[in-house]
């Protein structure tokens, strides 16, 4: 009897404790509760795109500071030497330019690192926006929000000059090859849904693992975004080459990358303003030229 | 409780009802008491289960973040999309399991025999066994898989092999991934075997040796058959774990259930495919778990409740 009474009391207690907790929906209201490095430094910076700066004021995670996230580690040519705060590399430069448009410079910009999982997990985020070549797609947009694209990349095929992938000129040439891609990328979807290879493709934790497999000849070619592929062939693995990029209309083209925000973050509109201003002033194009200029040229593969 | 037990005997079992007036409805007082106890236990268990499950169902959705979590992890539509596709990749996992499991058993037994050798001349074998189990139980399986799966083919293994029905390339991640799993798991299995062998009382060996059996015959005909029975439950435990860990081979490239779920998760920014993968793994492991429980129960009944490790 005693035990039953205790059980009932426990149940009542639990009900009471949780019943009072009725706040069910809190849609993306980033509470400015997390203290970040470099408070109170700016907002009065000589911001050029006044619109974005006004827009962003008071909407960031930490007042007066912008927290930007990128991958851990971040790879070149997007971030050079894994040091995004230096602004070297395409995405580092884009992020800092957007930040400046929104009125954050110098110490007002804080960098954090996340994996993809942390970026898409439900709940509070520890960054204002996150950029690591996130492709915008409608499914993802149900969980997170994206800015307008800051880059559009084609898919490309990378292999050894003297390997089995040498001489491919069309999509159908790829069918017989053992293809690999990083598992979390749109490149893998491109393999399964556009190329339809005859042999089962391989998926890897990262491009780094895919490179090892290519090196071991466990796969014949890597499918990746064009700049990454060109960077690997130019800098990382000697003897490899990007044999081609996939033409518009094959589904491999027009993979647009956006800044990733928590769902319905009010800051998205400000970032869009900033990107529009950067596009209008030609600054975005200049950044692309500077960091990606060497990594955009490759023959186009026939779609048959 | 009116029917407090007073006489606790088993006399009733064989006795004639007429000459056994303590029987009511053909049951002794003790049998009635036990039945009442069982019923009471069932009622209590049932009630507490209903209360706990009810509380969970009632309370979890009241948490402030529940709707977000539900959308991210338990999206019915996405589940229905992902489940059949993932099921198509299950064969990869099953295949890996089917060829890894027997190899692990054999290699694990070899390692265990090394550790159990007694001749002084075989000390190097004992040393090998000890170092092997220490190393492979200590090193994370992921590292073993990377090292064996990428490292060995990296040495320059090329070319094809043809073994009757099986053919492929020598640098295949299926081969080296399996080898890595076999190396790692046999260390655990060897320790299970060793514990089993050592659990057979010394007098059994002594008796066998005194009958003139050699050391190896003693092992084969006396120790191992008894040890084998004892180690089956803990071995099953290791194999349950192996059933899930075959998914680790996916880091070398092969796409199987978990890897495919991970890709779907990344592509849609929604974790429901991982939940679907978990359900698929449960479908595999639960029957095996039930089988193990049944086996343990049976051996307990057969041996009068003394055995089981």
Account of the 3D structure:
- The complex is a heterodimer of chains A (304) and B (309).
- Chain A is α/β, with parallel strands linked by helices and 304 residues long.
- Chain A has 9 helices and 12 strands.
- In chain A, the strands form 4 sheets. A 5-stranded mixed β-sheet of chain A has the order 8-7-9-6-10. In chain A, strands 2-1-3 form a 3-stranded parallel β-sheet, with helices on one face.
- In chain A, α3 crosses α8.
- The termini of chain A are far apart.
- About 13% of the residues of chain A have low confidence.
- In chain B, strands 1-2 form a two-stranded antiparallel ribbon.
- Chain B has 11 helices and 2 strands; from the N terminus they run ααααααββααααα.
- In chain B, a hairpin with a 2-residue loop joins β1 and β2.
- Chain B starts with 28 loop residues before the first helix and ends in a 7-residue tail after the last helix.
- Helix content of chain B is 71%, strand content 3%.
- Chain B is mainly alpha-helical.
Considering the chains and any ligands shown, give keywords for the structure.
heterodimer, A: 304 residues, alpha/beta, five-stranded mixed β-sheet, three-stranded parallel β-sheet, 12 strands, B: mainly alpha, two-stranded antiparallel sheet, 11 helices, flat, disordered N terminus
Q: Topology of this structure?
A:
The complex is a heterodimer of chains A (304) and B (309).
Chain A: H1 2-19, H2 50-56, E1 66-70, H3 90-101, E2 109-113, H4 116-120, E3 129-130, E4 144-146, E5 151-153, E6 155-160, E7 179-182, H5 186-195, E8 202-204, H6 207-215, E9 221-225, H7 226-236, E10 240-245, E11 255-257, E12 260-262, H8 267-281, H9 283-292
Parallel strand pairs in A: 1-2, 1-3, 7-8, 7-9
Antiparallel strand pairs in A: 4-12, 5-11, 6-9, 6-10
Chain B: H1 29-59, H2 66-73, H3 76-87, H4 90-116, H5 123-138, H6 141-154, E1 160-163, E2 166-169, H7 173-199, H8 202-210, H9 215-245, H10 257-268, H11 272-302
Antiparallel strand pairs in B: 1-2
Helix pairs in contact in B: 3-11, 4-5, 4-7, 4-9, 5-7, 6-7, 7-9, 8-9, 9-11, 10-11
């Amino acid at each position: 009897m005693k035990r039953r009474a205790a059980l009932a009391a426990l149940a009542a207690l639990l009900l009471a404790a949780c019943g009072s907790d009725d706040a069910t929906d809190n849609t993306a209201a980033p509470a400015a509760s997390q203290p970040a490095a470099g408070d109170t430094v700016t907002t009065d910076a000589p911001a050029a795109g006044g619109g974005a700066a006004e827009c962003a004021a008071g909407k960031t995670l930490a007042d007066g500071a912008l927290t930007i996230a990128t991958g851990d580690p971040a790879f070149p040519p997007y971030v050079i030497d894994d040091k995004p705060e230096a602004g070297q590399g395409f995405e580092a430069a884009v992020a800092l330019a957007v930040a400046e448009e929104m009125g954050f410079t110098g110490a007002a910009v804080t960098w954090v690192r996340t994996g993809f999982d942390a970026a898409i997990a439900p709940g509070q985020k520890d960054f204002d926006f996150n950029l690591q070549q996130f492709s915008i797609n409608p499914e993802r947009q149900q969980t997170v929000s994206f800015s307008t694209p800051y880059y559009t990349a084609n898919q490309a095929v990378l292999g050894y000059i003297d390997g089995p992938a040498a001489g491919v000129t069309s999509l159908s040439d790829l069918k017989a090859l053992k293809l690999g891609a990083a598992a979390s990328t749109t490149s893998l979807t491109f393999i399964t849904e556009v190329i339809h290879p005859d042999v089962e493709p391989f998926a890897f934790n990262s491009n780094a693992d895919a490179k090892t497999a290519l090196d071991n000849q466990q796969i014949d070619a890597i499918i990746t975004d064009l700049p990454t592929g060109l960077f690997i062939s130019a800098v990382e693995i000697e003897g490899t080459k990007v044999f081609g990029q996939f033409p518009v209309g094959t589904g491999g083209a027009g993979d647009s990358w956006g800044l990733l925000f928590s769902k319905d973050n009010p800051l998205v509109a400000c970032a869009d303003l900033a990107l529009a201003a950067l596009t209008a002033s030609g600054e975005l194009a200049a950044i692309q030229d500077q960091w990606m200029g060497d990594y955009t040229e490759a023959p186009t593969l026939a779609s048959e | 409780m009116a029917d407090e037990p007073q006489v606790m005997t088993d006399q009733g079992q064989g006795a004639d009802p007429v000459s056994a007036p303590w029987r009511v409805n053909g049951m002794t007082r003790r049998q009635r008491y036990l039945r009442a106890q069982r019923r009471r236990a069932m009622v209590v268990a049932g009630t507490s289960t209903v209360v706990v499950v009810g509380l969970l169902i009632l309370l979890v959705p009241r948490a402030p973040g529940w709707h977000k979590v539900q959308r991210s992890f338990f999206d019915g539509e996405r589940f229905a999309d992902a489940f059949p596709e993932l099921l198509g990749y299950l064969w990869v996992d099953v295949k890996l399991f089917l060829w890894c499991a027997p190899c692990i058993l054999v290699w694990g037994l070899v390692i265990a025999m090394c550790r159990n050798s007694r001749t002084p001349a075989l000390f190097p074998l004992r040393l090998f066994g000890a170092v092997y189990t220490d190393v492979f139980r200590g090193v994370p399986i992921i590292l073993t898989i990377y090292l064996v799966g990428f490292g060995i083919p990296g040495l320059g293994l090329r070319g094809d092999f043809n073994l009757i029905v099986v053919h492929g390339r020598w640098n295949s991640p299926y081969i080296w991934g399996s080898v890595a799993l076999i190396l790692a798991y046999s260390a655990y299995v060897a320790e299970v075997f060793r514990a089993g062998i050592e659990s057979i009382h010394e007098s059994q060996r002594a008796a066998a040796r005194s009958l003139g059996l050699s050391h190896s015959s003693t092992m084969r005909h006396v120790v191992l058959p008894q040890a084998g029975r004892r180690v089956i439950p803990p071995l099953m435990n290791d194999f349950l774990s192996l059933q899930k860990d075959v998914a680790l081979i996916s880091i070398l490239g092969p796409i199987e259930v978990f890897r495919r779920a991970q890709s779907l998760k990344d592509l849609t920014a929604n974790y429901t495919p991982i939940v679907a993968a978990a359900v698929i793994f449960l479908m595999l492991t639960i029957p095996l778990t039930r089988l193990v429980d049944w086996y343990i129960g049976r051996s307990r009944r057969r041996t009068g409740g003394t055995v089981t490790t």
